[in-house]
């Protein structure tokens, strides 16, 4: 069995892989982009993940490569595979997390439900889509968008002219994606893990609450999600994992519509914000599960430890102070709350940590989690 896992990217997801790696007796090494990132505790190198020589040199020090993010270029990923380095997830799967246009094409090919969409290259094509969809739609850049970036609602054919111009100036061409503005009841997320030998396990579907395009709250399991919704979400994620050959954690972000449908919104092929609740709320956390999967070990139980778990992101943090300055007050007032700090400096809108509370009554769990997180504003 491989004993050293290399993680490309030094963010909080890599940081949260460190404790389960220690518990599993696995050595974890991190290639961080700049010194002092969240995963500094396990960082063994600093370098550009876009530079082939840097990444290959890092890969020579580990047994398997995985990721904190999906942004490593395809030519780098494929060079690693060609050199015989185990890469999980591999480039053929990551392609669909890196490019939303390819993702939409693949989801359609797999016959999975998604919003009506089109690839567009100019204002006329955007205008035609708007005319056919009630005058409003969502436009997305194919690459680089996350946490609300690269996404906008438009109601005018010229509403994405700056993005069309940027594509033209880039020299590589390409298209934007336009999607119908879905009338959804709420957003859900379904996580599964898949190991290279094919075993798949699924976590309960959760409800996610977004603020300004950033995940603010997660409720696990999703309240009032009947068996039909839960089964539909699980089936979609399993079909995606098998259809693109994901190895490791996969998160499928979903819309639940007013007429009872479940539609695919986005994909993430790594541990995901919607799964942070599992650290304290599930038998096997998503971070341990990801390590098990990329090492091709039998996957762990996904069952919740309590009836309800609520995760609240700390966005921005206390102005001019560290999270630690609020520990005493928060812990005294909310002894059931679990805090996870990311070792980041406070900045408006930045994810600097999260709070989790688990228990038997949803209303009290939700109130306790929100109150505890509010003390770190």
From TrEMBL:
<feature type="binding site">
    <location>
        <position position="187"/>
    </location>
    <ligand>
        <name>ATP</name>
    </ligand>
</feature>
<keyword id="KW-0547">Nucleotide-binding</keyword>
<dbReference type="InterPro" id="IPR005875">
    <property type="entry name" value="PurK"/>
</dbReference>
<comment type="function">
    <text>Catalyzes the ATP-dependent conversion of 5-aminoimidazole ribonucleotide (AIR) and HCO(3)- to N5-carboxyaminoimidazole ribonucleotide (N5-CAIR).</text>
</comment>
<feature type="binding site">
    <location>
        <begin position="179"/>
        <end position="182"/>
    </location>
    <ligand>
        <name>ATP</name>
    </ligand>
</feature>
<comment type="function">
    <text>Catalyzes the ATP-dependent conversion of 5-aminoimidazole ribonucleotide (AIR) and HCO(3)(-) to N5-carboxyaminoimidazole ribonucleotide (N5-CAIR).</text>
</comment>
<dbReference type="InterPro" id="IPR011761">
    <property type="entry name" value="ATP-grasp"/>
</dbReference>
<dbReference type="Pfam" id="PF17769">
    <property type="entry name" value="PurK_C"/>
</dbReference>
<keyword id="KW-0658">Purine biosynthesis</keyword>
<comment type="similarity">
    <text>Belongs to the PurK/PurT family.</text>
</comment>
<keyword id="KW-0436">Ligase</keyword>
<feature type="binding site">
    <location>
        <begin position="265"/>
        <end position="266"/>
    </location>
    <ligand>
        <name>ATP</name>
    </ligand>
</feature>
<dbReference type="GO" id="GO:0034028">
    <property type="term" value="F:5-(carboxyamino)imidazole ribonucleotide synthase activity"/>
</dbReference>
<dbReference type="Pfam" id="PF02222">
    <property type="entry name" value="ATP-grasp"/>
</dbReference>
<feature type="binding site">
    <location>
        <position position="140"/>
    </location>
    <ligand>
        <name>ATP</name>
    </ligand>
</feature>
<dbReference type="InterPro" id="IPR016185">
    <property type="entry name" value="PreATP-grasp_dom_sf"/>
</dbReference>
<protein>
    <recommendedName>
        <fullName>N5-carboxyaminoimidazole ribonucleotide synthase</fullName>
        <ecNumber>6.3.4.18</ecNumber>
    </recommendedName>
</protein>
<feature type="domain" description="ATP-grasp">
    <location>
        <begin position="104"/>
        <end position="295"/>
    </location>
</feature>
<comment type="subunit">
    <text>Homodimer.</text>
</comment>
<dbReference type="InterPro" id="IPR054350">
    <property type="entry name" value="PurT/PurK_preATP-grasp"/>
</dbReference>
<dbReference type="Pfam" id="PF22660">
    <property type="entry name" value="RS_preATP-grasp-like"/>
</dbReference>
<feature type="binding site">
    <location>
        <position position="100"/>
    </location>
    <ligand>
        <name>ATP</name>
    </ligand>
</feature>
<dbReference type="InterPro" id="IPR040686">
    <property type="entry name" value="PurK_C"/>
</dbReference>
<dbReference type="InterPro" id="IPR003135">
    <property type="entry name" value="ATP-grasp_carboxylate-amine"/>
</dbReference>
<keyword id="KW-0067">ATP-binding</keyword>
<dbReference type="InterPro" id="IPR013815">
    <property type="entry name" value="ATP_grasp_subdomain_1"/>
</dbReference>
<dbReference type="InterPro" id="IPR011054">
    <property type="entry name" value="Rudment_hybrid_motif"/>
</dbReference>
<comment type="pathway">
    <text>Purine metabolism; IMP biosynthesis via de novo pathway; 5-amino-1-(5-phospho-D-ribosyl)imidazole-4-carboxylate from 5-amino-1-(5-phospho-D-ribosyl)imidazole (N5-CAIR route): step 1/2.</text>
</comment>
């Amino acid at each position: 069995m491989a004993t050293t896992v290399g993680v490309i990217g030094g963010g909080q997801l890599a940081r949260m892989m460190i404790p389960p790696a220690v518990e599993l007796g696995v050595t974890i090494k991190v290639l961080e982009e700049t010194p002092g990132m969240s995963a500094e505790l396990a960082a063994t190198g600093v370098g550009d993940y876009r530079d082939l020589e840097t990444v290959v040199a890092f890969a020579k020090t580990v047994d398997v490569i995985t990721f904190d993010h999906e942004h490593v270029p395809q030519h780098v990923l494929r060079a690693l595979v060609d050199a015989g380095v185990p890469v999980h997830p591999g480039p053929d799967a990551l392609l669909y997390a890196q490019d939303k246009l390819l993702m939409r094409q693949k989801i359609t090919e797999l016959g999975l439900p998604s919003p009506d969409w089109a690839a567009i290259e100019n204002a006329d094509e955007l205008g035609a889509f708007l005319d056919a969809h009630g005058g409003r739609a969502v436009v997305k850049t194919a690459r680089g968008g996350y946490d609300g970036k690269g996404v906008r609602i438009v109601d005018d054919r010229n509403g994405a002219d700056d993005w069309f111009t940027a594509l033209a100036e880039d020299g590589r061409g390409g298209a934007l994606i336009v999607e119908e503005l879905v009338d959804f009841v709420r957003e859900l997320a379904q996580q599964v893990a898949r190991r290279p030998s094919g075993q798949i396990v699924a976590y309960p579907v959760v409800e996610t609450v977004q603020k300004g395009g950033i995940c603010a709250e997660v409720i696990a399991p999703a309240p009032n999600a009947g068996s039909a919704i839960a089964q539909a979400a699980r089936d979609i994620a399993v079909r995606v994992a098998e259809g693109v050959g994901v190895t490791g954690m996969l998160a499928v972000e979903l819309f639940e519509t007013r007429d009872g449908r479940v539609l695919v919104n986005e994909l993430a092929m790594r541990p995901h914000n919607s799964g942070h609740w599992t650290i304290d709320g599930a038998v096997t956390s998503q971070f341990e599960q990801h390590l098990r999967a990329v090492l091709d070990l039998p996957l762990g139980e996904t069952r919740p430890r309590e009836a309800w778990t609520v995760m609240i992101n700390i966005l921005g943090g206390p102005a001019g102070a560290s999270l630690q300055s609020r520990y005493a007050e928060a812990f005294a007032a909310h002894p059931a709350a679990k805090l996870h700090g990311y070792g980041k400096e406070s900045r408006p809108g930045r994810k600097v940590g999260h709070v989790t509370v688990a228990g038997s009554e949803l209303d009290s769990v939700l109130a306790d989690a929100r109150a505890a997180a509010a003390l770190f504003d």
